[in-house]
Amino acid sequence: MNLAIRHIDSSNVKWNNEGSFLSDMHKDLKADYIIANPPFNDSDWSGELLRDDARWSVLGQKLPPPPNNANFAWVQHFIYHLAPNGIAGFVLGNSSLSATNTGDGHIRKAIIESDFLDCIVVMPNRLFYNTSIPACLWFVTRNKRESATNRNRNKEVLLMDARGKGTLIDKNQRVLTEDDLTFISSTYHQWKAKSSDYKNIPGFCKSVTLKDIAEKEFNLSPNKYIELETDLKIRVDFKENMSALMRSFSKDETLRASLEKEIQNSFQRIGYSEIAKTKFSNLNINNLLELSKTLFHYWFIDFEFPNKDNNPFKSNKGKFIDSFQGKIPDGWEFETLQNATTVIDCLHSKKPEPSINPTDYLLLQVYNIAEDGLIDLTEKFFITEEQYNFWIRNIEAIEGDCLITNTGRVGAIAQIPFYGSFAIGRNMTAVRPNKGKVTPAYLINSLLSAYMQIETYRETDIGTILDSLNVKGIKKVKILVPPKPILEKFESFARPIRKLIEISSVEALSVRRANINEPELIDEE
């Protein structure tokens, strides 16, 4: 029926009641082209009856697929039936890109090492009529050598991340426009072509080598390899940006004078006399957020933090060394979050029933992780004290801890404000700056930076239903660690600014619960 409605000749389709695995109706066929949409994750394919089938040796070694999943049985079936110059294109679930359960990972590795894999395209969700789950396209070929039209692609693979393509025509259905289809297909053909102007496109595609893939443990998720377009290399004009910010500052009388004084004194001590005159108690939350981002960028991306003479480091010929992310100041280094902080997996227990008592304790949910690193308590999930004690077995989140969402809204980040402590619900990981290598204000600004967007994108696993950023991936994310004196200088003004941001949140000021104290500042005079 699928072929008929697309006006494709189906006269050679051979039907049988046993299926292609038990009864291969084309045993001797070697096809130039194979197009297929096999069932995903089929567990009822009689794999236990076919352990010695010749198709499982097509990769040069005997690799029987796992009996409980036919994904790579189909792949080997297609490769087995390819002609010497044949190419196959087929649809698989996203788990095929990274699954390591028995058999799958070994077969995927053998396909890659045999150099049959030509291209992977990860597609957006909601393309199918009967399910919203996303899928991926595999293209395999027996011949990647130079031809009349194609270049030699031996030991190269094209990876495309097309999750951002397509247009929703209703809440359940997405379609790829002609422009989308042309863009995806032309990218593949340009990459293959002998005379080509193909270039890697940040956020969309990258040509990688088999060595690159081996270094990623044969994981084919494109986001592990593709660069993102970011503003990391855009130099911030500090004076101009700060002038624009100060011109736009509007009064906000709810902010506290004691924090303002603390910030002003800190700026004065590091030679920022002009900024020290700012009435920080008059700034609204958007001004404060932009101020925090600008200062972080200026210090830790442009590397114009004050040197020993309180002059901008880079502009005054500060010494730099090479790193995997380019030049960084001498004495600085990248460390994994696991080494620089304490990364704590939150409980995966079943979500408890909510308490009806509004004086009980809060269990943070993924929807409480707002933009710009803030906790949003517009919607609150209360639990009993007994449940609270259960959910804080791994960690009770306190001031300065950062939360990273693992699935759904992958990589959303928030920091626990100074006036609260919380239990943390499912699908979140806590990062605690308690190892003396990073400070709370530096940690949240780092996690919110464009650089960290690249790191979390790279460590995200593309899933069949939902993408996920697991604890293992979060631990591997690298963070730049400056010397302690520079961190302490930054913390002296950045943490009070963060507190002003937390106070300025309308949702935060509305909280009146047993385990959350009123925001209260002490006059230091």
Number of strands: 19
Distance between the termini: 81 Å
Please list the strands of the largest sheet in the order they lie side by side.
1-2-4-3-5-8
Outline type: elongated
Q: Which percent range describes the beta-strand content?
A: 15-25%
- Rg measurement, Å: 28 Å
Please identify the structural class as seen in this structure: alpha+beta
State the helical fraction.
Answer: 25-40%
Tell me the quaternary state.
single chain
Largest sheet, strands/sense/barrel: 6 strands, mixed
Descriptive report:
By secondary structure, the protein is an alpha+beta fold. 29% of the residues lie in helices and 17% in strands. It is built from 17 helices and 19 strands. The chain has helices at residues 2-5, 19-22, 71-80, 104-113, 178-192, 210-215, 238-248, 257-269, 273-276, 285-300, 337-340, 385-391, 440-447, 450-459, 471-476, 484-504, 506-509; strands at 31-36, 82-92, 117-122, 136-141, 156-161, 167-170, 173-175, 205-209, 320-323, 326-329, 333-336, 342-345, 361-364, 382-383, 402-405, 413-415, 423-424, 428-432, 478-481. The strands form 6 sheets. It has a 6-stranded mixed beta sheet with strand order 1-2-4-3-5-8. A 4-stranded antiparallel beta sheet has the order 12-18-15-16. α7 packs antiparallel against α10 (285-300). It is elongated and about 80 Å long. It starts with a helix and ends in a 16-residue tail after the last helix.
